[in-house]
Amino acid sequence: MTKFDVVLDELVTANRILAREGVVDSFGHVSVRHPDRPDRYLLSRARAPDCIEADDIMEFSLDGTPLDPADRRPYLERFIHGAVYEARPEIGSVVHNHSPSVIPFGVTNQRLRPLLHMCASIGHEVPIWESQDRFGDTTLLVENMEMGRDLARCLGGGGRTALMRGHGSVVIGRTLREAVFTSIYLEVNANLQMRAMNMGPIKFLSPGEVDAIIARTGPFTLNRAWENWCRRANRPVIEIP
Ligand SMILES: [Zn+2]
To answer: How many angstroms separate the Cα of 126 from the Cα of each of 25, 106, 123, 154, 160?
Structure first.
């Protein structure tokens, strides 16, 4: 396999894993920055993630223009991806999803914060993007670059996750495996936080604990989780060259 073929295969696997783990359903998407062209990204045509094959993957410039569309229809919300890659050169992968447990934290005053060591990668506190502030009444969908850039600004210079009020979330990573890892543990944390809230005041991870855990979360941890999720999604584990 060429380097490009490996990236395509990894992206198909990422879609299947996110579907298997309940982060995406018929909607939601994951992209990866082009391995040779940082001004482009790879993202499936508009299709449910669990159905995606390598032939569905399309190439886009950062403004969301499809470069080889053929008869394939792109996701309306692809602008989320390009806007993040434009704003954050160190980022290699973006996930947008509507995973159910995070939604309550976008529509209440309860802020989503890491409470489990595996979830430190979501960041210290998850900000909320409010589309009303600049765009008023919309369908809540990110349907142009202006909205995408506004959302990317909400992530800040070092953020890893952001909620989208009444809609879902965006999760980013330096690598595809990191973005998938954080997406899954964002859902886990939200689910646990709702349950813990019913039991009393929560002791969240301290800022120092979050920083220490993030510093130790490297390829070994990400690959161990990836191998397990590949097995569960019925996908082969490919060694990244
Ligand atoms: Zn969406």
So the answer is: 22, 9, 7, 10, 8
pLDDT at position 241: 60
Q: Which long-range contacts (CB under 8 A, 24 or more apart) does 35-41 make?
A: 35/3, 35/4, 35/7, 36/3, 36/4, 38/85, 38/89, 40/67, 41/81, 41/82, 41/85, 41/94
Residues 195-211 pLDDT 10s = 999 999 999 999 999 99
- How remote is the CA of residue 58 from the centroid of ligand 1, in Å? 18
Q: What is the Cα 116 distance to its own chain's centre?
A: 19
pTM reported for the whole predicted model: 0.97
Are the C-beta atoms of 151 and 129 separated by less than 8 Å? yes
Could you confirm whether 77 is annotated as catalytic?
Answer: yes
Model pLDDT for residues 20-41, shown as the tens digit of each residue: 999 999 999 999 999 999 999 9
Residue of 77, 143, 187, 239 marked active site: 77
